[in-house]
């Protein structure tokens, strides 16, 4: 099952946000890490819905190694926590 890399930023003590290097503008957040990760599939679904409405589809996710080789993302990967978010979510496939 495809997985998108999410970069987790928790600079704010009252919130955690994450974003997807392969999906510009797709972000998720929450009061804590668990909530941000729980909300991530919904953010992906909304992003996919918007792309579909524009006649496009989600780009395939890059691997962590591919992202590490991307100079636009490499520093963020080194300086922040990373999570893998499955798409589509397991419960959507049932």
Report what the structure shows.
This protein is of the alpha+beta class. Helices cover 41% and strands 22% of the residues. It has helices at residues 33-53, 64-68, 71-79, 90-93; strands at 3-9, 16-19, 27-30, 81-86. A 4-stranded antiparallel β-sheet has the order 3-2-1-4. A hairpin with a 7-residue loop joins β2 (16-19) and β3. The longest helix is centred in the middle third of the chain and has 21 residues, at 33-53. The radius of gyration is 13 Å and the shape is globular.
List the helices and strands and how they pair.
Layout lengths: L2 E7 L6 E4 L7 E4 L2 H21 L10 H5 L2 H9 L1 E6 L3 H4 L1
Antiparallel strand pairs: 1-2, 1-4, 2-3
Number of strands: 4
Strands side by side in the biggest sheet: 3-2-1-4
Mean pLDDT: 91
SSE class: alpha+beta
Binned, the helix content reads 40-55%
What gyration radius follows from the Cα positions, in whole Å?
A: 13 Å
Number of helices: 4
Write down the overall geometry.
Answer: globular
Q: What profile does the largest beta sheet have?
A: 4 strands, antiparallel
Percent of residues in β-strands: 15-25%
Q: Which parts are unreliable, with pLDDT below 50 for 5 consecutive residues or more?
A: none
Distance between the termini: 13 Å
State the order of secondary-structure elements, H for helix, E for strand.
Answer: EEEHHHEH
